[in-house]
Design goal:
It contains 15 helices and 5 strands. It is of the alpha/beta class. The chain has 2 domains: 159 residues, Rossmann fold, CATH 3.40.50.300; 148 residues, no CATH class. The chain has a 5-stranded parallel β-sheet, with helices on both faces. Helix 11 runs antiparallel to helix 12, helix 11 runs parallel beside helix 15 and helix 14 runs antiparallel to helix 15. The relative contact order is 0.10. This is DNA polymerase III subunit delta. It comes from Companilactobacillus mishanensis. One of its GO terms (biological process) is DNA-templated DNA replication.
Amino acid sequence: MEDITQEQPKIVAEFQKIIQAGMLSHAYLIDDASSQIRNQMAIWLAQSQFCENLQDGIPDQTCQACKTIAMGDNPDVLQVTTDKQSIGVDDIKYFKKEANMTATQGNRRILIINEAEKMTSAASNNLLKTIEEPEGNLMMILLCNSSKQVLPTIQSRVQIFHLSNKSNTDEINDLEAEGYKESFAKTALEISDIKNLLTMPGDNYLSLQTAISTWLRQCNNAQMDSFIDIQTDIMPMIENKNHQQIFFDMMNQIFSDILSIRYQIKDPVLIKEDVLSKKTIPEIVDFSDYLFKAEEMWKSNVSFQSILEDMSLKYVS
């Protein structure tokens, strides 16, 4: 097994500073890299809370407490794993109940949810309540392939750490070769996977972002022209599955940005304007839930254009 401090030095250094300052949050979302590396990162973070020889925010990984966590034998560190296609609300309720029990080997409990993107909408919303109102000294660590596969309402309420797959400089250079400016390449990489971005030229990416923002403004104003915009402005720029995934990534980020703007939680990433300003917070949450379900339908091979047309009717009404 690779040493996570060598595998992910930048993220480890960031967490080290947070741990030393005593500023750990109660909820994190860690994405990118392989599932094995993500889990190692979560285990390292859990070890930092129980290590008997913590030095400068770094667990030694050799003490009995660290070894117990690595072997999965610490009852205060719970892991949600599944071989099923989804993580249901009953699964989340069960582990939440277990996690909220009194700690036995320390003063806190840690809940690690592997493949968090598998959570159903009901499971995600159930977990959201705990993230918003944590009980006791509970830390939650969500692991997933991409944070954009998790409900925007969860994204906006957790601290997100992106692990490194390869040099970020290399990825930026690759995108610059496709016409992305450096600053926008960095933004795009926060939202979508490099393999999808490389299939869409930089100018097209910007045009798609503009088209989506215009479409949402029309939905905001209850204009039925939004239905036509899908056919005339959005669909012509989406040529394949990679582009369709970019669309969902952008939409997820826009909803997250809107909530960030409304709640003033953090700086928005993709948009600076609340393009759904006439919609209430419950409506925004409902829209993001619908987007989550729409992406699930798309993954089940439902027509992408049909999904967008239904989405337009939903957002206008």
